[in-house]
Amino acid sequence: MDSYYCIVNLPGVPVRDICVLGASDDSAANQALAELARTWVGFETLYLYCGERLVTVLSNPALGFAPPIPDLDLADVRFATAA
């Protein structure tokens, strides 16, 4: 079974820490990642993995990065075509 873990990057200090998260699925791991982001004030990026699979990358908007885009249900997106 793979574990969820997060790589913490600080400005000028890549891979500052690696934190193991107690989570059983991607949703719980993302919630744990959000909590971790609150404890690492000034982080640059947080990379969340499950084993070798990249799950989420969180960048700090306070450092000028764009805030995360809300999830889109692409099944509901309809594309307009020119007539």
UniProtKB/TrEMBL annotation:
UniProt protein name: Uncharacterized protein
Taxonomy, superkingdom: Bacteria
Provenance organism: Brevundimonas mediterranea
